[in-house]
Amino acid sequence: MNGNDFVKFMLKSPLQVFMGDTMLITVTGRKTGRKYTTPVGYYQEGDTLWIISSRDRTWWRNVCGGANVDLHVHGRDLTAFAESILDEKAVAPQIVGYLRHVPLSAKPLGVRVEHGVPNLDDVARLAKERLFVKICLS
Questions:
Q1: Would you call 98 exposed, middle or buried from its count of C-beta atoms within 10 A (0-12, 13-18, 19+)?
Q2: What is the residue range of 118's domain?
Q3: Could you read off the pLDDT of 102-138 as tens digits, one per residue?
Q4: pTM of the full predicted structure?
Q5: CATH number at residue 49
Q6: Please, what sign has the CA dihedral across residues 64, 96, 74, 15?
């Protein structure tokens, strides 16, 4: 069992309450039609879930241009619409919002924060390495 398998097990068990804002997302491969499930962290703004991902990962490519996805969130199964946001100019302000919601992520992401304000050079660098997946629940 690898790390993702363990997290998947935890999220499907009664112990999921200890997993915080982590969910399972299932995407359908655009070329293969196969289903791929991966655990991801997220934050919520109203009816929108935001996932930050490395551009090195591949699962998000299946929602480029938009696609339906299945989610397992806090013990509930949902269907939603997801799309990848790749444009660095759109990703940068979303990183600032992400850091506002998840301030403890600044250090692991390499973003310096002074007086609650993220360093914009760090944000611009990070926007080249990361992307967001926007998930609309309604």
A1: buried
A2: 3-136
A3: 999 999 999 999 999 999 999 999 999 999 999 999 7
A4: 0.86
A5: 2.30.110.10
A6: positive
